[in-house]
Every structure is written in structure tokens, then in C-alpha cells.
Design brief:
By secondary structure, the chain is α+β, with helices and mostly antiparallel strands. The protein contains six helices and eleven strands. It has helices spanning 35-44, 85-97, 99-103, 168-180, 195-199, 204-209; strands at 13-14, 23-24, 31-33, 51-59, 64-74, 110-119, 124-132, 137-148, 152-163, 182-183, 190-191. The strands form two sheets. Strands 1, 3, 4, 5, 6, 7, 8, 9 and 11 form a nine-stranded antiparallel β-sheet that branches. A hairpin with a 3-residue loop joins strand 8 (137-148) and strand 9. The radius of gyration is 17 Å and the shape is globular. Mean pLDDT is 82; it is low at 3-12 and 200-214.
Length: 214
Amino acid sequence: MVGAVLAAGVVATPATAPVADDFAIDIPAGFSERPAMAKRLAATTGIAGASVNAWAYVAEAGGAGIYVTAAKTRAPAAATGAENPASVARAVLAEVRSAPEAASPEAGSTETISWKLGEGENFLDAHHQWRHLSNETTTLTRALVYVDADDGVHLVRADCVIGSAAPASLTSMCETTLASLHLTGPASSRKPLPAMAIEAGGDTAAAAAAPALT
């Protein structure tokens, strides 16, 4: 779903920034909201058992789209091993990182440009950039992941998809938009979630040794 830049013939509504309890993002002028596209985006988010809200915006002049998703899932009560909150967060980040393969399973049709995972105040901050060679688009993604006091795992994600023919100013606009994404709740409302534990990824031994959330 994330990857469609324009939807010709669709009636647009003026852009309104997402209204949410735990995050905020600035939507630039010149973008129109696409509620129907957002509904499809929410329905296709690949996080098992998650409750999802989504917002979609398309540049009125063409060439770019901004897609915002907020998802919440959780590990079972008193879960351990593969079902603990850290492992659930790892799976959520894996879904973000696998976006190029999800967009097109055909070998060579997409390529990852960069992936970086850092930490904020009790949240993980992932930056992903990849290119769809067939669609001639580049996607810039920022994803914030955190665990709440009840072990709920939250993903707040913003994707900016840019057409290859779009002016460089749109790339700058995308970077500014993603930089504006932030969590609004206090850090004390979130549990620590070390990036090192999440980056263990598919390494079973490393994951087993990673600190569990308590």
C-alpha cells in the first residue's frame, strides 16, 4: 500500500494533521488528505493482532505522498521468550524494515539505501530509505517504537514516497516532515527498550541474552 504516490481522479480533502494521544507530526501545506487511501492502509498493515489508525496525504502538485500509521499490539500477560514485549517490538521493526520486499517480491525490483536504528527517551527511532526501481519511487520512513506501562507495544510510522521525477525540494520537505514526528507522552510513561536488544534480530543466542523488559 505504501508506495502509491498519486491516485488520479480521487476527490481530496484539505490536509489536517493526525489527531492522536501519543504523537504529533506536521503535515506541510500543499498536501490533500485521502481518507479512503488511509482506510486501505490501515487494513493492510502487517502487524498481527494490532489495532491500527492511518492517515494519507498526497501532494496537490503531484510527485509525493505522506502516509502515517499508528499501531498498538501487545505480548500476552507475563510472556517470556518470543512473546515478550522486546521480541514483539523486534517483530514490529522487522515489518518496517521488510517494506521493500513486501512492496515487490520480485528480485532486483527494490533496493535498500539505508537503515539506522537509534534510541530516544524510552523509545526506538528507526530511519529507513529504500527505492522501488519498477515504480521509480524512493521511500523515506521514520518509525518510533515504544512499550507502555501495560506492556503494549506501539508503532508510530511515517512514510514519505517521492516520485523519481519530483523536484529536490520535495525530498527536503519529506525530511522536514519526518523530523517533526515526535511522541507527546512523558518518557516516564514508557518502559526502557534498548536498541541493542532489538538489533539482535534473528540471532537466537543474542536475542536470548538480550535484557528482557520487566
